[in-house]
Write a structure and sequence with these properties.
Layout: H1 3-21, H2 26-43, E1 48-50, E2 57-59, H3 66-74, H4 76-81, H5 84-101, H6 104-113, H7 121-131, H8 138-153, H9 158-171, H10 181-194, H11 199-202, H12 211-237, H13 253-278, H14 291-294, H15 296-314, H16 321-333, H17 336-355, H18 357-372, H19 376-391, H20 397-414, H21 419-434, H22 443-450, H23 459-487
Antiparallel strand pairs: 1-2
Helix pairs in contact: 1-23, 2-17, 5-15, 5-16, 7-9, 7-12, 8-9, 8-22, 9-12, 9-23, 10-20, 12-23, 13-15, 18-19, 18-20, 19-21, 20-21, 21-23
C-alpha cells in the first residue's frame, strides 16, 4: 500500500469516525433506538412470516399500544438487570479492578515488558483474543482493557491495544484450536434444522463439524489482526496525547516480593479451580455443560481477586477491611458510565426481542436469498453478505442461528451444500461483523473501556478503528474459503462441503 493510498484510506476512516461521532452519546442513542423500535412495531403490527421448515408463524408484537405500554413500564427494571453483559462485567471488573488498584496489573506489566519480545506483543494479544472464546464471552471483558494497558505501558497508543484484543475476541468466534461451547450450541441447532430434510444425516453431525477450518483460521486471523493493528490502526491513531499513564520503571524490591507472592497465590488458586473443574463442579454431562463452565465469570473474578488481594496486603495498600472496601468502591465508581449505558441498552435489546422484528428481518432475508437464483460462489457470497446484514439487527450468535438455521440449512441442503459447511459460512459472516455492530451486547462495554483513555470517544471512533479488521478478516476468510471449496477439504472430521442426498 502506497503512502498516498494510506492517506486516502485514512481519510475514509476519518469520515466514518466523524459521521459516527455525530450520533448522540451511546446512552442517548440506545434510548432513541428503543423509541424507534416501539414506533416500528406499531407501523408493522400484524406483519407475519412463516417458518418454511416447521410451518410456525411469527408476527410483529405491537409495543405502540396499551398492552405494549404496560410491558414497557412493567419490565423496565427487569430489562435493565437482565441485560446479559451487566452482571458479568461488574463481577469480572471487581476482580480485575482490585488487581489494578493495588498495583498488581502495573507490576505484572513491568515484568512482562522487560521479559517479553515487544515485536510479538500484538500477535500475542490477537491470539489470546481468539483463544478466549473457550471462555465464551469473558474475553470481551478481560482482554480489551488489558490490551490497552499493555500498549500504554510500552508507549504505544492504548486504543490500538484495545482494538487488537477486541478484534481477536470477535474473530475468535469463528476460529479456535479447541472446541468451545459455541461449537456445541451451533451443532445442536444445525442438526435439528438438518433433520427436517434428512434425519439420518442429522445424527452424524458432530460438535467438531467446523474444527479443521476453525483451527486453520487461528493462524489467518492472528496474522491479519497483527498486520491491521501495526500497519493501519496504530499509525492512524498516532501518538497518544491523553492523560492516562502507565509508567514502566524497574520493579522495586517490595514490588518483586509482592509480585512473587501474588504469583504463588494465583498458581494455588488455579490448581484449586482445576480440581473443582474435574471434581465437585464437573457435573454429570459434558465439560461444556458442567457447572464449572457455567461459572467462568465467577472463576475469572476469583483468579484476579485473590492475587490482587495478596499483592495489596504485601505492599501495604490494603491494611484492613476498609481499605479493601474503598478500592472495590473505586472500581465500581469507574464503571458508573457503563451502568447508566446498560439501562438504555437493556431496554433496546429487550424491545427488539419482544417485537420479533429481528426474526421477521431474518425470514425476509431468507426469502431474498432463495429469490436470487444464485449458485456456487455467488450463492455463498450473497449468504455471507445477508448474514452480515442481519447481524446488525441481532447481536447474539446463538440467537441468530436459532432463527436462521431452520431456514438456511434446508435451503443450502437442497442446493447440495452440507449443513456443516452452511454453519461455517454463517460463523464467518457473524464473526467479521461482531466488532462493528453497536447491537453486539458487549459493544457498550468496549466503548466504556475506551473512554478511560479518550473521555469524549464516541461510537464513530470505535467503529472506524474496527472496520479495517472487519474488512481484512472478511477478505481473508473468503479467499481461504473459496480455496477450501476448490480443493474440497472437509471443514471438520467427517464434515464434507457438499451434501449429496
Amino acid at each position: 500500500m502506497t503512502k498516498q493510498k494510506k492517506k486516502f484510506s485514512f481519510r475514509i476512516l476519518d469520515g466514518i469516525e466523524w459521521l459516527g461521532n455525530k450520533l448522540p452519546s451511546p446512552f442517548l442513542l440506545f434510548a432513541i433506538l428503543s423509541l424507534l423500535v416501539i414506533i416500528l412495531s406499531g407501523i408493522f403490527a400484524g406483519v407475519t412470516v412463516e417458518n418454511p421448515s416447521t410451518g410456525e408463524t411469527t408476527s410483529v408484537t405491537n409495543l405502540f399500544s396499551i398492552s405494549g405500554l404496560q410491558y414497557i413500564f412493567q419490565h423496565a427494571v427487569d430489562n435493565f438487570v437482565g441485560f446479559a453483559p451487566l452482571g458479568a462485567v461488574l463481577v469480572t471488573m471487581l476482580g480485575i479492578g482490585l488487581a489494578e488498584k493495588t498495583g498488581l496489573v502495573n507490576a505484572a506489566l513491568k515484568a512482562t515488558v522487560f521479559s517479553f519480545p515487544k515485536r510479538l506483543l500484538t500477535a500475542a494479544l490477537v491470539f489470546a483474543g481468539i483463544m478466549s472464546s473457550i471462555a465464551v464471552n469473558a474475553g470481551y471483558v478481560v482482554l480489551p482493557p488489558l490490551g490497552a494497558v499493555l500498549f500504554l505501558g510500552l508507549g504505544r497508543h492504548p486504543l490500538a491495544g484495545l482494538a487488537a484484543a477486541f478484534a481477536g475476541v470477535s474473530g475468535g468466534f469463528g476460529a479456535n484450536l479447541f472446541l468451545t461451547s459455541t461449537d456445541a450450541i451451533l451443532q445442536e441447532l444445525t442438526a435439528e434444522a438438518a433433520s427436517t430434510i434428512d434425519p439420518a444425516y442429522a445424527e452424524t453431525i458432530a460438535v467438531s463439524m467446523n474444527w479443521y477450518f476453525a483451527a486453520f483460521s487461528v493462524l489467518l486471523i492472528t496474522a491479519l489482526g497483527t498486520w491491521v493493528t501495526d500497519k493501519i490502526v496504530e499509525p492512524r491513531l498516532g501518538k497518544y496525547q491523553g492523560e492516562a499513564d502507565e509508567s514502566i520503571d524497574y520493579l522495586t524490591a517490595t514490588e518483586k516480593k509482592a509480585l512473587k507472592y501474588a504469583g504463588i497465590s494465583f498458581l494455588i488458586t488455579l490448581i484449586v479451580m482445576a480440581y473443582l473443574s474435574i471434581g465437585p463442579l464437573r457435573g454429570d454431562g459434558s465439560y461444556l455443560d458442567s457447572p464449572f463452565f457455567a461459572s467462568l465469570v465467577f472463576v475469572i473474578f476469583i483468579l484476579f481477586f485473590i492475587p490482587g488481594l495478596v499483592y495489596g496486603i504485601t505492599v501495604k495498600k490494603i491494611t484492613n477491611d476498609k481499605d479493601l472496601t474503598s478500592l472495590l468502591g473505586d472500581t465500581m465508581a469507574s464503571m458508573s458510565g457503563y451502568i447508566a449505558l446498560a439501562f438504555t441498552a437493556g431496554q433496546f435489546i429487550a424491545y427488539f426481542r419482544e417485537t420479533n422484528l429481528g426474526t421477521i428481518i431474518a425470514y425476509k432475508g431468507a426469502d431474498f436469498l432463495q429469490s436470487t437464483g444464485f449458485d456456487g460462489f455467488g450463492l455463498i457470497l450473497v449468504f455471507i453478505l445477508l448474514t452480515m446484514l442481519i447481524n446488525f439487527f441481532i447481536g447474539s450468535s446463538s440467537a441468530k442461528w436459532t432463527i436462521l438455521a431452520p431456514v438456511f440449512v434446508p435451503i443450502m441442503m437442497n442446493l447440495d451444500y452440507s449443513p456443516e459447511f452452511t454453519t461455517l459460512v454463517y460463523r464467518i459472516a457473524d464473526s467479521v461483523t461482531n466488532m462493528v455492530t453497536p447491537l453486539l451486547l458487549y459493544f457498550p462495554v468496549i466503548v466504556a473501556f475506551a473512554q478511560r483513555y479518550e473521555k469524549k470517544l464516541g461510537i464513530g471512533t470505535l467503529i472506524s478503528m474496527m472496520i479495517p479488521y472487519s474488512i481484512a478478516f472478511l477478505i481473508g476468510w473468503i479467499i481461504i474459503l473459496f480455496i477450501w471449496m476448490a480443493i474440497g477439504i472437509p471443514v471438520g472430521p467427517g464434515a464434507p462441503i457438499m451434501y449429496h442426498q
